[in-house]
């Protein structure tokens, strides 16, 4: 017999998630954002079956209060085979970036997620989601952190070896339009990886219905 899943009493789960949200808002590390009226941007619930972990909200996502609300999000949903309603349904899909706030812009684009943020808040949220079957790791920051890999290991090699991390985790490159050249140079991604990703996601969501 397998180990029975832990359960969270239905009535207590929303209150627990609300408390974590307030704890994040009130953390000194996020004081400048809270003072500016900016709340942490993520989505989670006790019944989520899939977790999507990216890098950090972009400026558009933070301004609109909708994660992955850009062309990268459109492409990610296409890769996953998800429509917007499913993607933004926290009862099925949790969206937990490596940082819950837009970190600002540098010379070559958005700044990286703040160090230590994911280590502090992800374990708290993830332990409150006992039904998760798949964690989709999007981009180098999430992939290297969650797979415990040295930064010198190329993201391309990790994604190409994605089967080694199944069934619990699925590493992906970032779906930014800037990765068009990478897509053209690595046709195996669309030919092999994406069909497996869509099939895995569809199976999990079918069982969740």
From TrEMBL:
Protein name (database record): Uracil-DNA glycosylase superfamily
Pfam families: UDG (PF03167)
UniProt-listed Gene3D superfamilies: Uracil-DNA glycosylase-like domain
Organism expressing this protein natively: Olsenella uli (strain ATCC 49627 / DSM 7084 / CCUG 31166 / CIP 109912 / JCM 12494 / LMG 11480 / NCIMB 702895 / VPI D76D-27C)
PANTHER family, per the entry: URACIL-DNA GLYCOSYLASE SUPERFAMILY PROTEIN (PTHR42160)
Tree of life domain: Bacteria
InterPro entries documented for this protein: HI_0220.2, Uracil-DNA_glycosylase-like, Uracil-DNA_glycosylase-like_sf
Domain Uracil-DNA glycosylase-like: 41-198
């Amino acid at each position: 017999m397998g180990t029975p899943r832990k359960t969270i009493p239905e009535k207590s789960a929303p209150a627990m998630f609300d408390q974590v949200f307030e704890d994040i808002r009130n953390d000194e590390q996020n004081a400048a954002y809270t003072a500016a009226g900016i709340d942490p941007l993520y989505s989670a619930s006790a019944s989520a079956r899939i977790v999507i972990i990216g890098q950090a909200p972009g400026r558009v996502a933070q301004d609109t209060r909708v994660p992955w609300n850009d062309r990268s999000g459109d492409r990610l949903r296409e890769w996953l085979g998800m429509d917007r309603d499913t993607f933004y349904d926290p009862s099925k899909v949790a969206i937990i970036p490596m940082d819950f706030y837009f970190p600002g812009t540098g010379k070559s684009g958005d700044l990286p997620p703040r160090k230590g943020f994911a280590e502090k808040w992800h374990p708290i949220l993830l332990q409150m989601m006992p039904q998760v079957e798949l964690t989709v790791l999007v981009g180098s920051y999430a992939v290297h952190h969650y797979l415990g890999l040295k930064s010198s290991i190329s993201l391309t090699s990790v994604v190409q070896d994605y089967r080694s991390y199944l069934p619990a985790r699925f590493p992906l490159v970032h779906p930014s339009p800037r990765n068009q050249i990478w897509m053209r140079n690595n046709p195996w991604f669309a030919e092999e990886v994406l069909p497996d990703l869509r099939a895995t996601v569809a199976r999990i969501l079918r069982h969740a219905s």
